[in-house]
Amino acid sequence: MLKIIDRYILREITFPFFMIVFVLTFVLLMGKILQLMDLMINKGVSFFDISRLFLYLMPSFLVFTIPISLLVSILIGLGRLSGDNEITIFKASGISPYKILYPVAIASLIAFVITAAVSLYLVPHSKFATKNLLFAVAKKKASVGIKEKVFNDDFKGILLYAENIPVHGNFMEGVIVSDARFGREPNTIIAQRAYLVSDPGQLSVTLRLEKGSTHTVDTNLKNYRKMDFSVYDVNLDIESSLAEEKKARTKTSAEMTFSEIAEKLRAISLKATDSRELILELNRKIAVPFACLVFGILGVPLGIRSHRAVKARGFTVGLFTVLIYYLLRIGGEALVETGRLSPFIGSWAPNVIFLTVGIYLLIRTAQDKAIDISSFTAFLRKLIPGGEQKR
User: Fold this and answer.
1) Domain check: are 214 and 308 in the same one?
2) Of 237, 261, 278, which residue is a domain's last?
3) Domain finish residue from 192, 207, 237
4) Stretch 372-387: mean pLDDT, rounded?
5) pLDDT-derived band at 18, boundaries 50, 70, 90
6) Long-range contact pairs involving 290-294 (C-beta distance under 8 Å, separation at least 24)
7) Are residues 74 and 221 in the same domain?
8) pLDDT digits (tens, 9 = 90+) for 65-104
């Protein structure tokens, strides 16, 4: 059973947590909203498909927003208690920072379980589903893959230009086609309207042109031929499209679940680079959720302060801490990809560093020893090139 104080601290953390998760996730989604709205308004993609894309994007964002929101909410909640001298009352009543850590640890453990479930299961499935959905939409809607007033060279040997593509994307108007696949005399075809006709059984795509003409000039520029037509079919080379479809059906390491990566690692003929990428992704899927537990321990000493503070300070300190954490993570993963660092060290080094700092600060806080933030920031300046000169 949770005590009244434990529930009280949890309540102080919970409300900022959900608010920050919502705000951060919304901010990340804003970067995709304009692109998705363009697909729906200008390209005729259905609202149902757009809603599915929004749903598929959410897990990738939550993996990062949940740990960040947890740390910031701990700093805001405990900072509010410190600012109102309630932490001082707790200490006078015999409640040490170790006991304050108990409700924070519960919140961190819940966040860890949720983030781990999202990272290990939801993110791989959502990324793979997103790729397949985008590929299916591109095949279904010609206007998604072929843009108006742009020369498109997606098909081998053919350059395609469309003056106008209606919102529904069922046909193209004002079409110009340069076909250089046969012989040394490229054909230029001009048509009022064109359709893409696909045959899934034969794995073929045909560009059906209506009311136009073909124009051919020989290599010596002496002979010119013109042929008018009412309907003219051009068979398109879909080799590259089939290659993209095969690629879409093949999962990358980020789209694999924990068990799928472990199974692929057992393959004997795996290249060293592929093996390193898979091991890095395997460690990342666990190390990122583990940051919730690290931030929980680190947040207690950073949140308990002996002076009055405003919520903005907790938000600023939290974002600054998260920035350093993810810079270390990105740098470590970059070293892993170049082969200069092992995947295990590159993935877990930020967690080990911040966990060590968190335990050290927690012990000093429990012993009522001041935390010298100035010396910590001075140490960070030494790590940043040119930091001493900017001081």
Assistant:
1) no
2) 237
3) 237
4) 54
5) very high
6) 290/112, 290/351, 291/67, 291/325, 291/350, 291/351, 291/354, 292/66, 292/67, 292/70, 292/108, 292/109, 292/111, 292/112, 292/115, 293/105, 293/108, 293/109, 293/112, 294/351, 294/354, 294/355, 294/358
7) no
8) 999 999 999 988 888 888 777 777 877 777 877 888 889 9
